[in-house]
Amino acid sequence: MANDNRVALVTGSGTGLGKAIAASLVNEGMTVVLTGRREDVLQKASEEIGKQQTLVIPGDMTSEASVQKLRDELLEQTDGRLDILVNNVGGVPARGPIDDLTLDQWQQVIDKNATSQFLVTKYMLPALRKRERGAIIAVTSGLAHFYMKGFGAYSAGKAAAEGLIQTVAEEEKANGLQVELLDPGSVATDVNPHGENDPMDVAAGLVDMIR
Q1: Can you give the pTM of this predicted structure?
Q2: Which residue range or ranges hold the Ketoreductase domain (predicted)?
């Protein structure tokens, strides 16, 4: 994909795996839209990755209004183009045994890992359908299929996201969209310093997935 001039949106791209994915796509020649809640972190990532090939549009992927605003600003700044969506946002804002979790904690985890993917996919799909090689890559987790004490909400969120994305893959076959899941394994990041996988290696694997 050398000199690839497509436009990609990577959610949660200020740090960690999302930042590595954005850097790898820029290395292929793409313009990458960086998004997440912390504008200062996104701006720093843009400077490190390359300001000429990145656009910074902050947003909260769990808020419908924020995602709609992201879509509108992205399409305005890219002349209506969006070729690739990487649904990377996720995490564990709360954990613990099910009987200790509050409903608010449960909802936070579900929103971060499943609702975010629903909203971003929903509002970016019309633009992606217009592209010749549109693609959606959704980052998932092995905890959608195996289970650890204290991570019930997270497992439920990732399983819900997988079901959503697999359904989108079926629904979008007729439109020629590539829709894939990526399980990165345990990635070494600031919040998971003992992770086994280098984020740049995982990002390289994602680049190889894209047609």
Answers
A1: 0.93
A2: 6-185
Find tokens 């509108």 and name the residue: 72
Helix, strand or coil, per DSSP, at residue 85: strand
Amino acid identity of 34? L
Instruction: Give tens-digit pLDDT for 81-95.
Output: 999 999 999 988 899
154 is catalytic: yes
Query: 67 to each of 114, 149, 151, how far by Cα in Å?
Result: 14, 32, 27
pLDDT tens-place string over residues 119-153: 999 999 999 999 989 999 999 988 878 888 988 99
CA 134 to chain centroid: 15
Q: Choosing from 31, 154, 162, 184, which is the catalytic residue? A: 154
| Nearest-angstrom CA–CA distance, 7 and 26 | 10
For 195, the 3-state DSSP assignment is coil
pLDDT at position 195 over 90? no
Question: Nearest to residue 6, comparing CAs of 113, 103, 79, 99?
Answer: 79
Give me the domains of the chain, ranges plus CATH numbers: 7-209 (3.40.50.720)
CB 60 within 8 A of CB 82: no
